[in-house]
Write a structure and sequence with these properties.
The structure is a single chain. This protein is 79% helix and 0% strand. By secondary structure, the chain is an all-alpha fold. It has one domain: Four Helix Bundle (Hemerythrin (Met), subunit A), CATH 1.20.120.160. It is elongated and about 50 Å long. The two termini are 28 Å apart.
Length: 119
């Protein structure tokens, strides 16, 4: 089975359909916000993990999950969902592996989104 797209093309089509005829301006704006905000949320994950602030960590993971889902970054959304669930159910003790995964998946989503909006 082939690896799914890093960015779900249906999500991109849905975003483009929200503002047809704008030559992709709306998509570029939404992608830009995502690409600016997500590294801040990942830094917030790192900082709240270091501080042992479970509630802040959970909120940051939930924020990433939602914004990734909106843009169709489904692998990133899945890792953020795992982080959110882990922090809610078991605290921050075993999130290290997932922290590496979320950074990797964001890098993949970032590259794919940048390629999409550059078209």
């Amino acid at each position: 089975m082939a690896e799914p797209s890093v960015i779900d093309p249906h999500a991109i089509e849905n975003l483009q359909a929200l503002n047809p005829g704008d030559n992709g301006e709306f998509l570029r704006e939404i992608a830009g916000i995502f690409l600016e905000d997500t590294p801040q949320r990942i830094s917030e994950l790192d900082q709240s993990l270091a501080d042992g602030d479970n509630a802040r960590f959970t909120r940051a993971a939930q924020s990433i999950k939602g914004s990734a889902a909106n843009l169709g970054a489904m692998a990133l959304r899945a890792v953020a969902e795992k982080l959110e669930h882990q922090s809610r159910s078991a605290g921050l003790a075993d999130v290290g592996t997932l922290m590496g995964e979320i950074k990797t998946e964001f890098s993949r989503a970032q590259a794919a989104l940048e390629a999409i909006v550059a078209r």
